[in-house]
Amino acid sequence: MTKRERLRELLVRRSVRLGDFTLASGARSDYYIDARLTTMSAHGQLLIGEVAWELIRESGLEPTHVGGLTLGADPIAYAIAHRSAIEGAAIDAFTVRKQAKEHGTGQLIEGGLPVDGRAMMIEDTMTTGRSTMKAVEAVRAHGTEIVGVLTIVDRSNGADAIFRAEGLPLLSIFTGSELVDAARALR
Fold it and tell me: Going along 77-129, which residue ranges are E strands?
């Protein structure tokens, strides 16, 4: 079994729920994916670091930093940063807060993202892409170039078109339908 197949199996077992759900976008769905149940697990961290690192490397986009809107992007970015260091090609992680701190330095972006960096935006589960666009806007306002977007799960509800219009390639490890089909096969 490949690492990607093992990650799919872990996501199906830990994160995919079938039923009737209202998504953050307000849309109704017959499935829900709480990827954090996988991304914050020890085995999930290991597999996501390996699979996402490989996808980034194969993309040729060469980011220097990975990150996105807290909380969904955080464990994924950290797993990628960890794996990249093991591979000898360190990519640092950063976090975009939902709002700037009201104390200390008042940072909106944590982790030392430099303006001359090349950022890969990260998301756990993407439906419309609007949440990730908030992080994209913050990083652009910071002055850092964005080279692309990576998501663990693309629910295929138009996010690809949003990022294409922004000139940003979207890298997806899985589609929502791929995970749902695997979950239904287990029933």
Answer: 92-96, 109-110, 118-126
Residue of 84, 85, 67, 86 whose CA lies nearest to 76: 67
Amino acid at 43: H
List the domain boundaries for the chain. Answer: 3-186
- Quote the pTM value: 0.95
- Does residue 122 contact residue 142 with C-beta atoms inside 8 Å? no
Integer-rounded Cα Rg, in Å, for the chain is: 16
Transcribe 31-76 into DSSP letters: EEE-THHHHTSHHHHHHHHHHHHHHHHHHT---SEEEEETTTSHHH
Looking at residue 125, its pLDDT comes to 95
Top CATH class of 3-186 equals alpha beta
User: CA 137, CA 160: separation in Å to the nearest integer?
Assistant: 17
Give residue-wise pLDDT tens across range 80-115.
999 999 999 999 999 999 887 666 666 899 999 999
CA distances from 57 to 90, 102, 169 (A): 12, 37, 14
- Determine the residue type at 118: R
* Pairwise CA distance, residues 124 & 146, whole Å: 18
Contacts of 181 (CB under 8 A, 6+ apart): none
**How many residues are listed for the chain in this entry?**
187
Spatial separation of the C-alpha atoms in residues 53 and 10, rounded to whole Å: 18
Do 96 and 138 meet the contact criterion of CB atoms below 8 Å apart? yes
